[in-house]
Amino acid sequence: MRLNEFTAIIGQKVVLVPYRSEHVEQYHKWMQDPELLELTASEPLSFEEEMDMQRKWRDDADKLTFIILARANPGLVVTSPNSVYELPMIGDVNLFLKD
């Protein structure tokens, strides 16, 4: 969803950022794990399909998708909006909006 396109939610242990194209490679690697596919009720996708899915999720009006980044040092000060993207990616979370 474009609503969260420039949103970062910064907590003590994690940071939530929008699912962007630069996250797709790592996300796609995770989704090659059969156990993870089963646990998330997901279907295997090619890298190109995963890129298409990221664009769809970004543009979807009823869904917010965030990537979870780990803050190894909770005292670390975020010096710029882009500096959070250097943190390690550890998961994702989706919010589905319904009227």
TrEMBL record:
<dbReference type="InterPro" id="IPR039135">
    <property type="entry name" value="NAT9-like"/>
</dbReference>
<protein>
    <submittedName>
        <fullName>N-acetyltransferase 9</fullName>
    </submittedName>
</protein>
<dbReference type="GO" id="GO:0008080">
    <property type="term" value="F:N-acetyltransferase activity"/>
</dbReference>
<dbReference type="InterPro" id="IPR016181">
    <property type="entry name" value="Acyl_CoA_acyltransferase"/>
</dbReference>
<keyword id="KW-0012">Acyltransferase</keyword>
<keyword id="KW-0808">Transferase</keyword>
